[in-house]
Amino acid sequence: MPIAIVIGVSIGFLISSRPHLSRIVIGLSSLIMTIPSLALFGIMVVLLAPVKLGLGITPAVFAIVLYSLLPIVRNTYTALNEVDPNVIEAARGMGFTRAQILYKIKAPLSVPVIMAGIRNAIVLGVGIATFAFLIAAGGLGYFIFSGVSRANLFMVFSGAILVSLMGMGLNYLFLRIEMWLTPQGLQRN
Amino acid sequence: MIALQNVCKKYGEKIAVDNLSIIFDQGTVSVLVGPSGCGKTTTLRMINRMVEADTGEIRIRGRSINEYNPVMLRRAMGYVIQEVGLFPHYTVYDNIAVIPRLLKWNDARIHKRVMELLDLVTLDESFCEEYPVQLSGGERQRVGLARALAADPDILLMDEPFGAIDPINRITLQDTLIDIQERIQKTIVLVTHDINEALKVGDRIAIMNEGTLVRYDTPENILFEPGGKLVEMLLGHDRNLKALSLRKTSNFIEKSGFSTVSPEDSNETIQRIFEGKEERVVFIIDSEEKMVGRYHCVVESGEGCSVMKSDDPVYIEKSANLSEALSKMLESGEKVLPVVSSKKRLLGVVTLSSLFDEMSRESDRSNT
After folding, report:
1. What is this structure's pTM?
2. Which of B48, B150, B189, B315 is the most exposed place for a label (fewest CB within 10 A)?
């Protein structure tokens, strides 16, 4: 997950002032999301097999990162571009450089929307991580898929509940981080 | 001094500014006014290179602005916009400290400067820790002004600075600006679509239309000799009334035609004054010629009148303008208004008839 955050936020920043590139990147990450998640795990296995990493943690991480990118990239991009134009105008007029506007003004003002994207991605990521079991990466998917194959309802439920709890827990954790990162002046809105 | 010479700016096919040459003098308030789309904002934004001129040259104190790095150029000028654009994630203190910090001042110097500025724009120190969302529109604009003045720039560019503020607060802010300008003497270029604001705060007014300069003159000259349909239209039908606001009451004081008494004078003395003349009002002044009250007589049926005393008489200060004197008269129903000095010394009176004379003189002048 941290990998997806770092990559996603960086891409969002990089494309924030390049409208043409942003259309391509956001289009591409939307495309990835249209691939059924199970199929994406399969694709990763096939793609990584030649380098002897076809099974286990590696393809699972690749799949989850790719899948989580869209909400993060899209929210970062939108947030950075929807900062009040008057604030940007004032900053330019006072002699902020482009970089200063991005880091001192746009970035802190974008925190709430970027964090919402990250939380979205986390819940999504935890859900699809269950498929990782199918490519020998272990995880909570074990309970669900073994339960299904043994017709053990208790096992399926406990797996599913654990996954939701984990999603909710992480969501809550990041909500706290979001509140901590959000500049004070925005919280009193 | 800011000098624009043959400056042009096109947006696509549309000409925003057409071969404009104008000089904004050092230490004065120049106001750009005109209908929307006349190029006034574009002109302002070319001065700090938020918009680059297509052709022509803009010089500040003799040096072309193209010799400066745009970022450095902007840091050397104050910039105030209609929506203020305070940084919502910064406190008032941090907002004002923005440019000094960009210029890497030390903390002690920044602190001192922020306190000075808050005082200048008449805000209390307790505002320091507030965030922009907690402020009213007028307070935000004051912080915006303080922020623009932070690094003590020679030049202040203001784009419709009071446009988004309610009429009452707008007048207070205009007064604050005039007050501040008297102390700081900056070269201010202000854009507005409100001719009254232009007449009030401007030392010189540039009237623009369709990218060209129609008129560039002092408020007096523009009011008294509009010289053109567009200017007359901008000024509106109450031009004569507006002209009154440029006339100081002190120039219209009449020293005769009224009587004064001292507080010790007896009722008979006062009665005698009223009987002998057509006057209905007598002013009471003390030994230092300060106005302390007035008598006026209320006509009763038949002859004679009964004398009423008032300790809180209407008056006008000599620094007020004639338009204020007129509204005082209309409010109180008095045709004769006592004029006092700032220390409340009675100087004379202004009369309704002298105001009418002045107004008809104005319209004679503009009709010929």
Report:
1. 0.72
2. B315
